[in-house]
Amino acid sequence: MVDDLMQMGPEELRIKDKDGNRLTFKGVNLSKVLEKAGAPTSARIRGENLAKYILIHAKDGYQAVFSLTEVDSSFTDAMVLLVFQEDGKPLPPGIGPFRLVVPHEKKQARWVREVIEIEIKSANE
Fold first, then answer.
1. Which residues, in sequence order, are CB contacts of 63 under 8 Å at separation 6+?
2. Residue 25 carries which DSSP code?
3. For residue 30, how many other CB atoms are within 10 A of its CB?
4. Cα–Cα distance for residue pair 33/67, rounded to 1 Å
5. Residue 79 DSSP SS3
6. pLDDT one-digit tens code per residue, 37-60
7. CB 3.0 to 4.6 Å from 74: which of 13, 28, 39, 42, for a disulfide?
8. For the CA atoms of the chain, what is the radius of gyration?
9. Contacts of 58 (CB under 8 A, 6+ apart)
10. In the chain, where does DSSP find H-type helix?
């Protein structure tokens, strides 16, 4: 899976964590991952697709929700990264192998650790 993400043009982002430590994360914009998976993106996010959302699942059962428009680069400049490295190293057990990083949010509640599944659902279900 990391090899697949590497082919999507990963980005590096240097930010502070909740404790104020400066960290460098490497990952792929979640909108690219969704596009590659065939999810509605860009001009296809209209009509019934506006009622779709992303449900992120963690290994420990933790979940977080994002609307499609919150992560789509045609709707927002805010970035959500699916991260696979921290400070040049693979994410350690208990955090990785994948993690979401949502740098524009004041609280890090949706910085989901140990991401195991990304699901597209409809509010109409």
1. 55, 56, 57, 112
2. E
3. 24
4. 15
5. coil
6. 888 888 889 999 999 999 999 999
7. 42
8. 14
9. 112, 113, 114, 115, 116
10. 2-6, 30-36, 68-71
18 vs 63: which has the higher pLDDT = 63
For residue range 61-98, what is the model confidence (pLDDT) as tens digits?
999 999 999 999 889 999 999 999 999 999 999 999 99
- What would the two tokens of residue 45 be? 């996010």
How many Å apart are CA 42 and CA 31, to the nearest integer? 9
Note the residue count of the chain: 125
pTM of structure: 0.90
- Token reading at 107: 């609280």
CA distances from 10 to 3, 6, 29 (A): 11, 6, 7
Amino acid sitting at position 24: T
Q: Are 52 and 106 in contact (CB under 8 A)?
A: no
Residue 34 near residue 52, CB atoms below 8 Å: no
**pLDDT of 4:** 79
State how far the Cα of 101 lies from the Cα of 4, in Å rounded to an integer: 18
